[in-house]
Amino acid sequence: MRKTDVLVIGGSATGLVAAMTAKSNYPDKDVTVIRKEEKVMIPCGIPYIFNTVQTSDNNILPDGGLVNMGVNIIVDEVTSVDAKAKTCVTAANGEIAFDKLIVGTGSLPVIPGWLKGADLQNVYTIYKNKVYLDDLHQKLENLKKIVVIGAGFIGVEVSDELVLSGKDVTLVELLPNILGSTFDEEFASEAEKILADRGVTIKTGCGVKEILGEGTVKQVSLANGEILDADAVILSLGYAPNTTLAESMGLELNDCGFVKADQYRRTNLPDVFAAGDCAEKVDFSTGKVSRVMLASTACTEARTAGLNLYELNTYSEFKGTVGIYSTCIGETAFGVAGLIEAAAVAEGFSIVTGSFTGVDRHPGKIPDAHKETVKLIVSKQSGIILGGEVMGGKGAGQLVNVLGVAIQGHMSVYDLLNMQIGTQPLLTASPAGFPLIKAAEAVAKKLKV
Question: Of 311, 318, 313, nearest to 29 (Cα)?
Answer without folding.
Answer: 311
